[in-house]
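Ligand-bound model needed. 9Z3.
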Amino acid sequence: MAECIAIESTSMSARAFFEVEKRPQNLESSCLKLQEFSQLQKEEGRKLVVITSGGTTVPLEHRAVRFIDNFSTGSRGAASAEYFLEAGYAVIFLHRKEALLPFYRHFNCSQFLEHLAVNDERSHVSVKDDVVPKLLSVLLRYQDVSNQKRFLMLEFTTVTDYLFLLRAAAEAVHVIGRNAMLYLASAVSDFYIPSTELPEHKIQSSGKPLTVTLQAVPKMFGLLVQDWAPDAFIVSFKLETNKELLLQKSEGALDKYQHNVVVGNVLETRKRQVIIVTSGEVEGVAISKEELHQGVEIELKLVDNLAKKHSRYCRETKE
Ligand code: 9Z3
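Prediction:
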């Protein structure tokens, strides 16, 4: 089927979006979890990071059969969550349903059954010996943070779900003040179809091209920085495919919203190098071929760098 996608630039305001669009069904219970979790971390005196991870979808129908999606795998967010947990943070992990998850990402689901063995009596299942070392190491790390109640996962699918959830999380971590960080690694749709313009049922194919008009998703970042999480240390990500544009676009984003850090990355090289842009400073973070070969992940260095910046931010703004 030939399809044509037109994008219109007129857009409703960020605040109006939340009045008009349908909130996710489980939003109230998510809000409650976010508030309880944040309060607990406050009592424990922990730092807390909200990580967003994975792409968002744009449905083309209310009863969505078709939707627009993007490339994001959730690898950046999932790896970063583990390193923040290792650094002592509590983590709220807002992720695209079915994107990579912290801890689980180390195992390939399609090989799940290959890892298991059945005893001779066919009454008991165990994990094969060769999988035990890796499973044990991941499982112990996972159980530690779960027992300490330091890890909360909540999922989204559409861009609308994502924005409602992000607002709820940013508002919930307000109790943590400057000890909260927002680490916005999700690849968020820039264009969507407002619910008032969505057909109820599956679009019928008539053999002719389909033209879909998308509106710009209202820019929420200003509201996030100023209203939802004014004290938090905010890290946004800038993605480009043209590396010549990356620095200028990253600096532009920082200048526009006056938050703390923009991490810039190029699609093809995102697992090997990023730039970290703060006001007045640009640093490159990269992993060498040798490190890559050894399985070192760039998120290890990225999280270490950002955790140090966050500590400095907490110290400086206290004085
Ligand atoms: C990123 O740039 C992330 O690093 C990636 C990670 C999505 C590239 P993966 O999920 O990839 O590990 O496969 N996230 C932000 C992307 C984005 O859409 N940024 C917007 C922009 O560049 C600002 S919100 O304009």
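Residues 72-76, 185, 187-188, 236-239, 265, 270 surround 9Z3 (CB under 6 Å).
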